[in-house]
Amino acid sequence: MKVNWQGVYPAVTTQFNDDESINFDTTKAMINSLVEEGVHGIIVLGTVGENCSLRAEEKRQILEAAKEVVAGRVPVLSGVAETTTALAVEFVKDAQAIGIDGFMVLPGMVYRSTEREAIHHYQQVARATALPIMIYNNPITYGVDVSIEGMGILAQEENIVSVKEATEDTRRISELFSAFGDRFVVFGGVDDIALESLMLGATGWISGLTNVFPRESVAIYKLAQQGRYEEARELWRWFLPLLRLDTIPTLVQCIKYAEQLAGRGSEKTRSPRLALTEDEKRYVSRLYDEALNNRIDLSKYNLD
Q1: Would 189 be classed as within a structural domain?
Q2: Which stretches are annotated as coiled coil (predicted)?
Q3: What is the pLDDT of residues 197-238, one digit of tens each?
Q4: Has 140 been labeled as part of a binding site?
Q5: Is 268 among the catalytic positions?
Q6: Total domain count for the chain?
Q7: pTM for the predicted model, two decimal places
Q8: What CATH number corresponds to the domain at position 219?
Q9: What is the pLDDT of residue 275?
């Protein structure tokens, strides 16, 4: 289906059994719940989906499972996080054949690219598929920043249509609009500055903590889109302590543990990621319990 490039797109987790094999049933149930609770799209195989911990055939199986359970209700995007450009090209070709609707492309993994190398990587991936592509710009995690000048080069690739902006510098969002107008659709890519990103013109939010509180995430987006910022801030301030879990090295474990607390999945990750320590779990539990105890009745916002 055509990607609408608007709204809240959770970067979903990949659920594992105790032996670290993929639990496809739980993964599909979790994705289905998110769609039923109003998210606007699904992203599989992102960082939170533990892309780099999966074998090639497992990634294809995840794509097939996601397409099956979503069944055309919302767009399904796939993260592209391969160690070489050739493998990334191979992956997008396979994913297009499976029926994925678009891609969120990361730079080459393991090797820290220069900007020139990252741009080349993105170009080759874009030229290998007719599907729309979102550039994932996350210099803090991946060590390479695609600058405004770099995005000018990538603007020549017609199917590079969006950017997930995760520099943690909200000024970049305004710079993108100033340089390119509406050439790129901008998504906020850092949970704890998502509201600021939406207020600056981002039309979407890619989120990890949406896996735990999807309805509240969608409500924040709708309020921001309607310019109801005072109401959005009230809900935002309630959510913010949990959203900060998205910006620490153990974000995957924290999000999956919060999912487990919410009865939405399992904390199990695949090695080398290990379960949180007991102190870390207590911290996440405290944030989750505080959020649950102070949860705001969304009906007050009259968003239906």
Answers
A1: yes
A2: none
A3: 999 999 999 999 999 999 999 999 999 999 999 999 999 999
A4: no
A5: no
A6: 1
A7: 0.96
A8: 3.20.20.70
A9: 97
Decide if 302 is inside a domain.
no
**Exactly one of 9, 136, 142, 257 is catalytic; which is it?**
136
Question: Rounded to an integer, what distance in angstroms lies between the CA atom of residue 162 and that of residue 150?
Answer: 14
pLDDT at residue 1, rounded to an integer: 79
Count of alpha carbons within 13 angstroms of residue 265, beta-carbon side: 33
Which DSSP category does 167 fall into? Answer: S
Q: String of b and e for 254-291 (b: at least 16 CB within 10 Å)?
A: bbbbbbbbeebbbbbbbeeeeebeeeebeebeebbeeb
DSSP character at residue 276 = P
- Tell me whether residue 136 is one of the annotated catalytic residues: yes
Report the chain's terminal Cα–Cα distance, integer Å.
25
DSSP 8-state symbol, 275: P
- Annotated catalytic residue within 59, 164, 222, 256: 164
pLDDT at 280 over 90: yes
Task: Give residue for tokens 């999966």.
Answer: 54
Sheet containing 204-207: which strands, arranged edge to edge?
A: 7-10, 204-207, 185-188, 160-165, 133-137, 102-105, 76-80, 42-44
Picking from 216, 161, 162, 175, the residue whose alpha carbon sits closest to that of residue 194 is 216
- pLDDT score at 64: 98
Q: Is 234 within the bounds of a domain?
A: no
d(CA 176, CA 186) in angstroms, rounded, equals 8
Domain that holds residue 18: 7-226
